[in-house]
Amino acid sequence: MVQIVYLNGAFLPLEDARVPVLDRGFIFGDGVYEVIPVYSRHPFRLAEHLQRLQHSLDGIRLANPHSDVEWRELIREMIARNEGEDQYLYLHITRGVAKRDHAFPKDTPPTVFMMSSPLLPAAQALREHGVAAITAPDNRWLRCDIKAISLLPNVLLRQLAVDAGAAETVMLRDGFLSEGAASNIFVVKDGVLLAPPKDHLMLPGITYDVVLELAAAHGIPSRVGPVAEDTLRSADEIWLTSSTREVQAITRLDGSAVGAGEPGPLFQKMDRFYQDYKATIMRQPSL
Ligand code: PDD
């Protein structure tokens, strides 16, 4: 089946989608994006993703090209036109096509792009053994709460992990944990789930919120606040969360075992809670 994407009002095959080279996304990385998981053809936490998209658009002073009702309709059609019960949607909005000038252009329509990709469950080996991560200084800007398409720092940081044979780079800023190159990071210490606060230094993850809600619902003690580097390095468990990776255990950090070096007991519980929660709210035929 041909992959169908959405570009500026039309659904068309991916191969036929073209953007002019003067698009400010291409020239300046001037835009924002969202990644929304879809399970059994139902978008997960859509209201929250659309709210975060609005936050990102407000952060770069770009008007939202669509109402929530319009987004929902476009997303519904996008899912229907593509293969797979489980997909992930990529939404991308730039400040449009204009003569190269750093200042905002006037009366320029934004570029709106959307595509769907297959969302595959994590490999069994990964569930059983977790992943390796490295640490690096967080050298990004101070508006990491905006889901900006200008991802060069994140790309360079992730590549450090790839070069080291690891799956993610965990970032530290001024001695405190911020997040992963493309994920949020949780730490378990003495039975308490610790999470950095949702401020300008990290992306407010939708999966992050789900994990904290599930912890509260199942009586797992949690604390949101700055997580010092020492706490990270002496953690019993470390997890990463994202829309495409859900919850994964980090079992090696900078080459050393995290806790016992295997996914820990709290991870096992949270993974089950997360899968059950997904199944309950997403796999209902009536939805
Ligand atoms: N990234 N932090 C960063 C820097 C991210 O890029 C992401 C997700 C997250 C997790 O957010 P959420 O739980 O809402 O997916 C945190 C997506 C998946 C991406 O860029 O592909």
Automatic annotation (TrEMBL):
Classification via PANTHER family: AMINO-ACID AMINOTRANSFERASE, D-ALANINE AMINOTRANSFERASE
InterPro entries membership: Aminotrans_IV (IPR001544), Aminotransferase-like (IPR036038), BCAT-like_C (IPR043132), BCAT-like_N (IPR043131), Class-IV_PLP-Dep_Aminotrnsfr (IPR050571)
Stored SUPFAM superfamilies: D-aminoacid aminotransferase-like PLP-dependent enzymes (SSF56752)
Top-rank taxon, per record: Bacteria
Required co-factors: pyridoxal 5'-phosphate
UniProt keyword annotations, A-Z: Aminotransferase, Pyridoxal phosphate, Transferase
Gene3D superfamilies assigned: 3.30.470.10, D-amino Acid Aminotransferase, subunit A, domain 2
GO MF, any single term: transaminase activity
Keyword Transferase: yes
Listed GO biological process terms: amino acid biosynthetic process; carboxylic acid biosynthetic process
Name under which the protein is recorded: D-amino acid aminotransferase
Lineage of the species this protein comes from: Bacteria, Pseudomonadati, Pseudomonadota, Betaproteobacteria, Nitrosomonadales
Gene Ontology cellular component annotations, sorted alphabetically: cytosol
Family to which this protein belongs: Belongs to the class-IV pyridoxal-phosphate-dependent aminotransferase family.
Keyword presence, Cell membrane: no
Pfam family, one: Aminotran_4
